[in-house]
Amino acid sequence: MSIPDSASTRERWLQAGLPIVTLALGIWLWHEVVLLYAIPPYVLPGPGVVASTLVSDWGLLSDSLLATLVTTLEGLLLAVAGGIGLAVLFNVSRLIEYSFYPYAVILQVTPVVAIAPLLLIWLPQQAAVLACAWIVAFFPVLANTTLGLNSVDHNLADLYRLYGASRSQMLFRLKLPAALPYILGGVRIAGGLSLIGAVVAEIAAGSAGAGSGLAYRIAESGYRLNIPRMFAALILLSITGIVIFFALSGLSHLLLRRWHESAVRRES
Amino acid sequence: MPPIVALRGVTKTYSNGTLALAGLDLEVRPGEFLSLLGPSGCGKSTALRLIAGLAEPSGGTIAWSGAAAGPPARHDIGFVFQEPTLMPWATVAGNVALPLRLRGTAASEAAPRIAAALERVGLAPFRNAYPRELSGGMKMRVSIARALVTDARLLLMDEPFAALDEITRFKLNDDLIALSGALAKTVVFVTHSVFESVYLSRRIVVMTPRPGRVFTELAIDAPYPRGESFRTSAEYAGYCRIASQALTRAMAAAA
């Protein structure tokens, strides 16, 4: 039996409304604390100062936001293409899997902060940042796709063989659709990681004195003790992460809503 | 008439050393409804997989008769698994269309055959539904429609109704009798249910477990179509008693 409509509507309002209330309370508290203790803006700027900086520096910050966003999305796209492509290759040939899988793991477990300086020496700056975003983001896609491709229902695979399916039909009509929920889970993780990779690389690059992304702005503002701008950049970065997460969740829901259990709203 | 397929002295040993079949002799005759009856572990599903070409026998021969006298083109077999085994990402029509799509049948030719197969199992109104929206019995009907869509001459069914409730199972048994009669199919039906095998079959092959081989064979001579009156008749009860005793002796012989 379903819960009465009014109750579920109230539940939804609470779920959407309460975070906004806590946010408002937090900002108000922040404002009061800064005022009460007369904290100077170079230690902790009040919300008003941050907001006005966001507006006055918007030209500079929006350029940086765009740069970070482009790097993150490019890194994510390359990670999705590379992760799925490599997983399919691994699935097609055991020899390729045995030869390269350990190195994919090594690439993943080596902290990207430690690789970034090296990449910045070897590659042009933009390419190095992109490479960092890609390295962190591609492994979850690879690992999840591999799991998904191996999780095909055995009977269904038998059925395909019984009806004489070719290798490409097995891949495109059976394995990839069956792996889709796993792939989308990997992509959702990769979205956040790609942003982290881009930020790490920008900060590493920033200390070398070049760059233009949001993370570079944060490092630069730190040196200049321009803390309000630092906060403004941080807020934009955080919003970027949230937007990416919801966009990918939405994509996942859109692709799975008709058939996968994860996307089906159950009536209790 | 020569048998459609004849298994002679077929053995199957799995790589883990399990001897699933030890010298199975079995003939499938054209147009018959044959049940393989036995407890779990008697290799009846293995026999079905060997006939379907999904596994290779370790010894013995599987001989096909007919036009080519070789193994049939693979799509000339319809297979129904114990689970519905549907693609959750495809609609009912998409699932039924699978064998035709894999063969590269043109959509214009496939559409009427898909519609006809769905009509046969009474699922025409659900063609655009997704499997998760269907009940267990309806999913099994989709699975049967998929096996019918290629108009294969041989239908292999591996305990297809074992997971269903009794009411649904009776209904599907009735429908299956009607279908196999109307379409003149040859059916090999694997089951561990005495009642189901007697109700459905023209001939029952009782198998012994570990390793699997044929223990005995029973003919069920009641005329088709069979229905509720047969299910409640003394004749049916008598056949069930005979089959049940045969099964008990088969298990005792193996122990």
Can you offer a commentary on this structure?
The complex is a heterodimer of chains A (268) and B (255). By secondary structure, chain A is mostly helical. Chain A has helices at 5-36, 47-56, 58-92, 94-109, 112-122, 125-149, 154-162, 167-207, 214-223, 227-256. The longest helix of chain A is centred in the last third of the chain and has 41 residues, at 167-207. Chain A is flat and about 75 Å long. Chain B is an alpha/beta fold and 255 residues long. Chain B has two domains: 1-72 and 157-255, P-loop containing nucleotide triphosphate hydrolases (Rossmann fold); 83-152, no CATH class. Helices cover 38% and strands 23% of the residues of chain B. A six-stranded mixed beta sheet of chain B has the order 5-6-7-3-8-9, with helices on both faces. Chain B has a three-stranded antiparallel beta sheet with strand order 2-1-4. Chain B is globular. Classes of the chains: A mainly alpha (268), B alpha/beta (255). Chain A binds chain B through residues 153, 155-156, 158-165, 169, 173-174, 177-178, 180, 258-261, 264, and chain B through 49, 52-54, 73-75, 77, 79, 81, 83, 85, 87-90, 98-99, 101-103, 130-132, 150.
The CATH topology of the largest domain in chain B: Rossmann fold
Low-confidence stretches of chain A: none
Biggest β-sheet strands, sense, barrel of chain A: none
Helix content of chain A: over 70%
**First and last CA, distance of chain B:** 37 Å
As a percent range, the share of strand residues of chain A is under 5%
CATH C-level class of the largest domain in chain B is: Alpha Beta
Mean pLDDT of chain A: 88
The SSE order of chain B reads EEEHEEHHHEHEHEEHH
The residue fraction in helices of chain B comes out at 25-40%
Which term fits the overall shape of chain B?
A: globular
Please tell me what the overall shape of chain A is: flat
